[in-house]
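Researcher: Let's try something more involved. This one mixes different molecule types, so please make sure each is placed in the same coordinate frame as the others.
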Amino acid sequence: MMTLYEKIKALYPSLQDADFMDTIRLQNDSDGKGDYIAKWEHPTLPKPTEEQLA
Amino acid sequence: MSIVTVQGNASGTGTLTIASPNTDSNYTLNLPAATGTVMVSGNMPAFSAYASAAQSVANNTYTILNANIELFDTASCYNNTGSTVGGIPAYSFLPSVAGYYQVNAAWYSATPSGQISSSIFKNGVAYQLIASSFSSVGQVLGVNCLVYLNGSSDYIGFYIYQGQGSTYATLASRPDLYYFAASMVRGA
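Model: All components are placed in one shared frame. Result:
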């Protein structure tokens, strides 16, 4: 099963690791809800939709 | 001469007792010329917890440390479970007294590539963060900060991050390597 990071990376291969410490923040609060996009402020790429990440 | 006034509360019914220790010597408590709330152990929350089990940390994903074993939790303000308890989110500290808190946290990583990070999140958002390049021989990355918490809704959590390219598993049974602690250092 792909992680959220892997799904996003497959959707946008141009993303770099630094993007995930800066304009994008993936988060897991260990509350049973799993990984989620806490912040998406990438200057050019739109935030993926639920359908794209399904 | 200045005046010392002891004032009761009009709506309260309890008795406030100022007790003397068992001593034959004389002592003086000097009060500062300032307004504020006297802080005693009963209104200065503090806790310390560590993670006892291995934890998976997905690549490039800020993941809260599952610090599930409490060394102490003086005011029951830390939630050491994976569910919200009493309004406190999972593995978070939500103190019941407003003030400034010293926070100390660290984790161990031996990722062979990428960056690692230790972050204190306040109310789900990064508050203070420290990052480092990987170290395949391993390193403990700690973060320390002072944070104001309002005593009613503000909470903090310790988030760890790694970017080795795949999911990383932390070590089990190392209370000295994966910990999260905080204590009030000053009232509001």
